[in-house]
């Protein structure tokens, strides 16, 4: 166990390096998005969430081809793509599908 | 000129690789921030903007240290840091955090 901790500590992408801490703080973006799940869809920014989702997808690949390979960066970007796509789905549902419901309701009214 | 273009296309950090497209995707954050500057401050998410400020600060260092070194990514995160800090100041001002305190005597 001690040797495993030591291996982790001294890893080229371990906690002594920026390769560990940059992805770790990038989780803040996904956490911020999760916190914003509670906000109304009107406040979601299309450009920002498209950037979050696309960056998450492309960076999942980038994480695997850099030296050192970075699984932390990979996992944070998968999560980022997921939260970005969910936020976009909330906004799109609100903007493009609830109008139909409103129209139906107004027709009924 | 054609040799320069060929050198770029075949570079180990060129457009045939994700070392190029990763930063290109990240420029989306900068563009998104610029677009959102035209929106009222109430639309800014304090959570997301604060996370972006920390994120880009750290990734400037990451871009410098990763192999192959990624200057495109470094420039991208420096730009994003500037945009997000500006957005953060707009958000903070709208929330009232940056208002000058009225002197006690005037209240």
Give a written overview of the molecule.
The complex is a heterodimer of chains A (109) and B (107). Chain A is mainly α and 109 residues long. Chain A has a domain of 65 residues. Chain A contains four helices and no strands. In chain B, α2 packs parallel to α4 and α3 packs antiparallel against α4. Chain B starts with a helix and ends in a 12-residue tail after the last helix. Chain B is built from four helices and no strands. Chain B is elongated and about 55 Å long. Chain B has one domain. In chain B, 67% of the residues lie in helices and 0% in strands. Chains A and B meet through α2 and α3 of A and α2 and α3 of B.
Concise overview:
The complex is a heterodimer of chains A (109) and B (107). With 109 residues, chain A is an all-alpha fold.
Secondary structure blueprint with pairings:
The complex is a heterodimer of chains A (109) and B (107).
Chain A: H1 2-9, H2 18-36, H3 46-65, H4 71-108
Helix pairs in contact in A: 2-4, 3-4
Chain B: H1 2-9, H2 18-36, H3 46-65, H4 71-95
Helix pairs in contact in B: 2-4, 3-4
């Amino acid at each position: 166990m001690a040797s495993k901790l030591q291996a982790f500590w001294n890893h080229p992408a371990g906690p002594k390096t920026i390769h560990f801490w940059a992805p770790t703080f990038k989780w803040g973006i996904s956490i911020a998005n999760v916190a914003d799940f509670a906000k109304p869809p009107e406040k979601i920014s299309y450009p920002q969430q498209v950037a979050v989702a696309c960056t998450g997808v492309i960076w999942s690949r980038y994480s695997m081809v850099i030296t050192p390979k970075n699984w932390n960066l990979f996992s944070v970007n998968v999560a980022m793509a997921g939260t970005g796509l969910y936020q976009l789905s909330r906004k799109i549902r609100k903007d493009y599908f609830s109008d139909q419901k409103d129209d139906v309701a107004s027709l009924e009214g | 000129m054609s040799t320069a273009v060929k050198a770029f296309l075949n570079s180990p950090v060129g457009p045939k690789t994700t070392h190029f497209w990763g930063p290109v995707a990240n420029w989306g954050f900068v563009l998104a921030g610029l677009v959102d500057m035209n929106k009222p401050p109430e639309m800014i998410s304090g959570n997301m903007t604060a996370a972006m400020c920390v994120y880009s600060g750290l990734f400037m260092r990451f871009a410098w240290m990763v192999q192959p070194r990624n200057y495109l990514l470094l420039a991208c995160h420096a730009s994003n840091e500037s945009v997000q800090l500006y957005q953060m100041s707009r958000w903070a001002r709208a929330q009232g955090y940056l208002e000058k305190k009225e002197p006690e005597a005037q209240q």
